[in-house]
């Protein structure tokens, strides 16, 4: 029998990411119950899981199911209350990013974990994509020399969030940045260490009264270097790239195709420039073919599944947590800094 599990929150992220992760883990997890304020949403997601019970109220679900593991997929403003309640019931807690909206909320969740002796893991899924893990291994191996900094570029179509007046993200302190910003901050934290300072510039390209800003330039001063991010939420296309800069080369990671390339151009002689440009083009093609092959043959890894597997290993075998909750707190603190700067700018 697998770990007795309660899933709270049955929206898009649960359906698209967490349920496939649970299925992939097979008998290690027993999805015993699903809970959502919209009971019909819980019932819809529960159907493929046979005997899974459904609830419209988390308190009732926690009392009756007594889960060993709670997977929390609700909006971040609910994480403190539901997370503390889950931990105090005796469950380990796997929760969506961000850990919470404020550092006091994160600290309350951490305090509940200490009291109960239970563990917490935050699902920063971008950090666990195969391409990012490949880049982490390359950096550790010294493939690009000493890591000196990173850049992130993100393009999100306007119709995905910005143009949608009733999208839940507009009710969060950072607006659209609150949805993808935690991923950016966690990548910087993992590669460059403690985030010590933040600086933000914004623009507003769409004249929506419900939107705080939709174009962001962010600089992070970290313990081991600088990180910069260009985040645009008003385009008609998707793009997500991470570039890691080292003393002897760079790594280019396409977060959507899953391609990670090592690039170097030691001088500007025409032959060197041509050779490096050709290597980049061929590398992109080969990387895309490998990524397509993994997808076609069902071998593409679910990053949520990798984190959840690591969390189960930590619970059952005492291995290190894939994402310690202190990292969740650090990201929320950086989000608070950025939020204050956004409000001053607005």
How would you explain this protein's 3D organization?
- There is one protein chain.
- The chain is α/β, with parallel strands linked by helices and 346 residues long.
- The chain folds into two domains: 3-118, NAD(P)-binding Rossmann-like Domain (Rossmann fold, 3-Layer(aba) Sandwich); 127-299 and 333-345, Dihydrodipicolinate Reductase, domain 2.
- The chain is 42% helix and 25% strand.
- The protein contains ten helices and 13 strands.
- The strands form two sheets. A seven-stranded mixed sheet has the order 8-9-10-7-11-12-13. It has a six-stranded parallel sheet with strand order 3-2-1-4-5-6, with helices on both faces.
- Helix 4 (79-89) links the parallel strand 4 (69-72) and strand 5.
- It is globular, with a radius of gyration of 21 Å.
- The chain starts with a strand and ends with a helix.
- The relative contact order is 0.15.
State Rg: 21 Å
Q: Can you tell me the residue ranges where pLDDT is under 50 for at least 5 consecutive residues?
A: none
CATH fold field value of the largest domain: Dihydrodipicolinate Reductase, domain 2
Q: Helical segment tally?
A: 10
Tell me the CATH superfamily of the largest domain.
Dihydrodipicolinate Reductase, domain 2
Distance between the termini: 53 Å
Strand line-up in the sheet with most strands: 8-9-10-7-11-12-13
